[in-house]
Design brief:
single chain, 438 residues, alpha/beta, Rossmann fold, 2 domains, six-stranded parallel β-sheet, five-stranded parallel β-sheet, 13 strands, globular, binds 1,4-dihydronicotinamide adenine dinucleotide, binds uridine-5'-diphosphate-glucuronic acid, NAD(P)-bd_dom_sf, EC 1.1.1.22, UDP-Glc/GDP-Man_DH_C_sf, oxidoreductase, UDP-glucose 6-dehydrogenase activity
Amino acid sequence: MTLRISVIGTGYLGAVHAVGMAELGYTVVGVDVDADKVAALARGEAPFYEPGLDELLAKHSATGRLTFTTDFAAVAGADVHFVCVGTPQRRDGLAADMRYVEAAIDSLAPHLGSECLVVGKSTVPVGTAAAMADRLAKTAPVGAGAELAWNPEFLREGYAVEDTLRPDRLVFGVTSGDAERRLRGVYARAIDDDTPVIVTDLPTAELVKVSANAFLATKISFINAMAEIAEVAGADVTKLADAIGHDARIGRKYLNSGIGFGGGCLPKDIRAFMARAGELGASHSLAFLAEVDAINLRRRQYVVDLTRELVGGSVANRRIAVLGAAFKPHSDDVRDSPALNIAGQLHLQGARVSVYDPKAIANARKVFPTLPYAESAMEACRDASVVLHLTEWQEFRELDPAELAGIVETPVVVDGRNCLDADAWRAAGWTYRGLGRP
Ligand SMILES: NC(=O)C1=CN([C@@H]2O[C@H](COP(=O)(O)OP(=O)(O)OC[C@H]3O[C@@H](n4cnc5c(N)ncnc54)[C@H](O)[C@@H]3O)[C@@H](O)[C@H]2O)C=CC1
Ligand SMILES: O=C(O)[C@H]1O[C@H](OP(=O)(O)OP(=O)(O)OC[C@H]2O[C@@H](n3ccc(=O)[nH]c3=O)[C@H](O)[C@@H]2O)[C@H](O)[C@@H](O)[C@@H]1O
């Protein structure tokens, strides 16, 4: 019999997971409290930009095997329930806001059938799974027999469909062999014999997730610290990254220097990890993450200061072109976007900023409605005193520096992602400034 799956929370993670489960052949219902999001998904439209998602959504919505609703009663009868709700940073501190996970468990509990599996996928502070198992036991109908497991997700936005359908590894935090067997069954069609499946207890599974993100954030801040040193020493951090990256023990990935990491995950996850370590009496173990965070935030400030310096001291009334609003290319996500943060700071200092992004303008407008936005890279750059390249979309890499030089006021470019062809820009008459790169 076809497995029936429910996915609670249909944001960047949950919508892709629901679609992925349908692609694996299951009958799937996605539930969210956001009626607009549900309505879009139910029409077969992805509520955000993610390559490949629209096609699969349309394909499976048409068969009726993939449905979306705000009504939790629709999850009744599902064999496996995946909890994918948000765990954002709390407004009053560094810790994760667990309200949404708790609410999802409470809404799910009354509808659980006998012998179903509830699987947490959200990124949570260690100890959450055990607490949610207790919560479920207290609220689920007597005899419901639901079991809880934690299966953290490692997908990257921009590659979310691919990562869901072909995960590089799976982690199953379980308390029984039966839960492991069921999870192996769910993912059987997504993996081959070589895909590592790591089966752990609940706290280890939760920690794997946050430590993976902490490591990635640390690697990025490491190279950005090297960029700071390279800047004052007159060295080239991009060459340095290539050279150390050839050492297989180090590896070149996540050594791209620039304005640092943003998004809905790395920044809030390292902060929540520090907060949890503090609650567990182990603040000292993760004290280095405060520096990782500080190095990262310094990158944004550095570009703001550099821009001011490049225009002779004050950005007031100067036209600044900002290429990029998303926190990274192939995504329309602007959560904690370094590019938007820099644009916002310059705007507040009186600059006449013009922001362009191929996919993220609509989301950027919601967060920063007062920022001026352009319809194209050329429009953003017209009459600019400085061009800031802040999100490395392919479209920006392909800009013709000679053509652009003809429409700006002053040909000065700051390459916040260290990936433009410096020689080509200089040859076209530009003052090129990389970050930690001559
Ligand atoms: N975005 C990503 O690439 C990845 C995210 N994660 C983790 O997945 C979780 C979700 O992240 P995103 O999808 O990015 O967040 P998101 O904000 O895009 O989506 C969360 C969704 O949960 C819904 N929701 C909130 N409370 C609810 C409730 N009580 N019942 C049903 N739905 C509810 C919201 O309306 C929203 O649509 C987070 O813990 C995040 O750290 C993990 C791996 C990758
Ligand atoms: O927990 C999550 O949500 C996800 O967080 C990250 O994925 P994501 O946020 O989609 O984006 P990344 O591709 O990791 O990039 C994060 C940020 O780091 C920046 N970055 C990345 C790599 C690099 O070398 N340098 C660098 O500055 C990017 O521009 C971006 O702002 C992880 O890569 C995923 O494995 C994880 O599942």
